[in-house]
Design brief:
By secondary structure, the chain is of the alpha+beta class. The chain has five helices and 20 strands.
Length: 352
């Protein structure tokens, strides 16, 4: 009995004999996926590299100039080239839809897929003659110059010169008649013939008040009224201000025939404290049947641009006094086109 009591008995839990489930190897799976991704990306990079090294197939640019745009596009498509189209007006309505220019030029070897710039004609910018009667010939001239300034061939519209002139009640320079008549169809380069007004014959005008004005104000008033003028210079007398119109002939508010010259005298000081010099710009302008637009511009050494006078002038000796720094450039323009330039020097130019 005692022996049985001292014997150790072990009670065995049946659940402990069950095997515990193994935990998944997460780290190994992650490493496997990472290696696969690196290999996949490497394959893609190598493929792209060899595709880039191999390059696209090369082809020669065909000549599509003068062809209609549909034919040109089909020809470029066969070469695996792609267009970049620009539109431009041309000199003839018959050019509409045709290729005027191309870039790169004909025969250039390029890679397939290259874009080719094509300039396509929109036809003539005008296809009928406008009605120019009643407009100033200078305005019409500048409009047409701006319209065809980029043209590489003869302009679509041009003038027959010299014009025909006649006196009329219309202001000088006004277009009285035109050929071809307004609304005439334009199929190619066309020459316009105009009859231009000379203005009223010997129409009287009244001289503006110029004596006593500064040279800047006098030039501005001349530009506003369009009176014919001639300047001369003399040194200032005691008590006189510098740069003032001291006399005019005929006197102010005098009735005179149109285009009669008004002679003006300007007094300038012998020496100027600011270092400027005074002088008289002179240029012989060819005679015109009517006054035309003229400008005298001063370009100072500092880069400043200063308009001295803008006036309608019929012709003859064009004289303008100035007070400017040495080295300034005087630029004379007629109808917005430069006709003469000269540099201001230190010597005085007085016409006594």
């Amino acid at each position: 009995m005692n022996m049985n009591r001292n014997r150790n008995y072990s009670i065995i839990d049946p659940d402990r004999e069950r095997k515990e489930p193994k935990k998944p190897n997460t780290l190994g799976f992650f490493l496997f996926i990472s290696i696969c991704l690196i290999i996949f990306v490497g394959i893609i990079a190598i493929s792209v590299f060899f595709a880039a090294v191999q390059g696209e197939e090369q082809t020669m640019v065909p000549d599509v100039r003068g062809k209609d745009v549909v034919s040109a596009l089909l020809e470029l498509q066969d070469k695996e080239l792609y267009p970049r189209i620009q539109l431009r007006y041309s000199q003839s309505a018959n050019d509409r839809g045709l290729i005027m220019e191309q870039d790169p030029p004909v025969g250039t070897v390029v890679k397939a897929g290259r874009r080719i710039r094509l300039v396509v004609s929109q036809g003539a910018i005008v296809n009928i003659t406008e009605n120019y009667v009643g407009r100033n010939i200078n305005e019409v001239r500048m409009d047409l110059q701006a319209l065809f300034t980029s043209s590489t061939s003869a302009p679509l519209l041009s003038f027959k010169e010299p014009f025909m002139y006649e006196y009329s009640l219309e202001p000088a320079g006004t277009i009285l008649q035109q050929q071809p008549r307004p609304g005439t169809s334009i199929a190619g380069p066309t020459v316009l013939e105009f009859v231009i007004s000379r203005g009223q014959e010997n129409a009287p005008i009244r001289t503006p008040v110029l004596a006593g004005l500064s040279i800047e104000d006098a030039l501005s008033e001349i530009g506003r009224t369009g009176v014919n003028f001639s300047f001369s210079l003399r040194p200032t007398n005691e008590g006189e201000r510098n740069g003032i119109v001291v006399s005019q002939d005929p006197q102010a508010q005098t009735s005179i025939p149109q285009n009669t010259r008004v002679n003006l005298v300007v007094a300038f000081a012998e020496s100027l404290n600011n270092g400027d010099v005074t002088g008289l710009f002179k240029y012989n302008v060819p005679r015109n049947p009517y006054p035309i637009s003229m400008e005298l511009l001063a370009l100072l050494p500092s880069g400043e641009r200063r308009l001295l006078i803008s006036v309608a002038y019929q012709g003859g000796e064009f004289t303008v006094p100035y007070q400017l720094p040495v080295g300034s450039l005087l630029i004379l323009s007629m109808l917005n086109r430069e006709i003469h330039r000269e540099t201001v020097i230190s010597s005085r130019n007085f016409s006594l």
